[in-house]
Amino acid sequence: MKRLIIVILLVALAAIAGVVVRSSSSKNGTVSEIRELVSHQATDDVREEVRQTYELAPGARVELGGINGSVTIETSDTKTAEVYIERTASSQEALERRKIDIQADASRLRIVAETTDHNFFAKLFGSKASERVTLKLPRQISLFAKGVNGAFLVEDLDGSIDIGGINGKVKVANASGTATLKGINGSIDLGMNRIEGEGVTFSGINGNIDLQLAADVNADFDAKGMNGRVIADMPDVSLEKGKHSYSARIGTGGSGITAKGINGNIRLSRGPATPASPGEASDKN
Asked: Is residue 282 part of a domain?
């Protein structure tokens, strides 16, 4: 039924385009654009690569937004940020309707994608360009992402994370500090080596959550508005269940872990203890 409606609309548009051709030669650009949109095939025939390198200071803020595709972040003990973006579209016109804006200095790396051509017919029938973003970053950063239409995968981070508006799976191997995840339409796999400040917050999640805490992390857990279960797969947890709510003390208690508006299950588990820094190790000897 949907295909039939689309075909009827396209035939009507083609008829309108024919009338426009006969009535005015000044509309040739619009007619050509309509014909291109109607006849193009939804294949990624055009490809473009973006490669950039920047130097970041420890604790720099990395921001991503408006990405129509997956994001993969690899980390290591380095000061160099390597940016690789693969852009694809069915035509050069479709590719040019999207813009990638990259801004960087020592304290900040910002990558935002947006559609610059808001033509009605292009928006309604035109194919959209997509981006596949791969970043190789220093481990000591804070990460902010909003509006990603694809999987979001991150390796170890020594810093806070703030992730929202993701339409896909989110996986963060390990983070330290605070973590905020909201408006996620997909499962979440989050590891926390250390929890500080405002703790860990989940809100508006449509998927299962797997939260793995380092063996020496203590916290208080509170979940409300649950459409699912909380499973404590660890020995040192006292879990209490209410009506669509759960609370728990993890270890000796401490930093807060809160969850609200979760449409899925939450699993709490333990990982290995947080590795001691060189300074901490020497103090113990």
From this structure: no
Which position has the higher pLDDT, 190 or 43?
190
Asked whether 110 and 103 are in contact (CB, 8 A), the reply is: yes
What DSSP character marks residue 29? Answer: H
Distance CA 117, CA 178 (A): 37
Count of structural domains, the chain = 2
Question: How many Cα neighbours within 13 Å face the side chain of 29?
Answer: 2
In the chain, % of residues over pLDDT 90: 64
Pairing of strands 80-89, 46-55: antiparallel
- pLDDT beyond 50 at 20: no
Identify the residue whose tokens are 């017919």. Answer: 121
136-173 per-residue burial string, b: 16 or more CB within 10 A, e: under 16: bbbbbbbbbbbbbbbbbbbbbbbbbbbbbbbbbbbbbb
CA–CA distance, 80 with 232 (Å, rounded to integer): 39
User: 3-class DSSP state for residue 72?
Assistant: strand
Quick one: 22 and 60 in the same domain?
A: no
Q: For the beta carbon of residue 188, count every other beta carbon within 10 angstroms.
A: 23
Q: Is residue 284 part of a domain?
A: no
Lowest average pLDDT, out of 137-141, 234-238, 250-254, goes to 234-238
Tens-place pLDDT, residues 240-255 = 998 889 999 999 998 9
Q: Do 143 and 159 form a contact (C-beta atoms < 8 A)? A: yes
